[in-house]
Design brief:
alpha+beta, two-stranded antiparallel sheet, 1 helix, binds zinc ion
């Protein structure tokens, strides 16, 4: 266990420059921790999977 890595693909790296963009969040789909805006509830990996249902 531990803090999410800065290089974790679940992170929302585009959020990092925002004021509240470096929070530790928990994904409501996979339950994994990721770094991103404090209001995010889905990690970047699950978000990408959701928007491409054909894959
Ligand atoms: Zn996820």
């Amino acid at each position: 266990m531990g803090l999410p890595s800065q290089t974790d693909p679940k992170n929302w790296t585009e959020d990092f420059s925002h004021e509240n963009g470096n929070y530790i969040c928990t994904c409501c789909y996979c339950g994994g921790q990721f770094l991103g805006h404090k209001r995010r509830v889905v990690c970047n990996v699950c978000h990408e999977a959701e928007k491409d249902p054909d894959q």
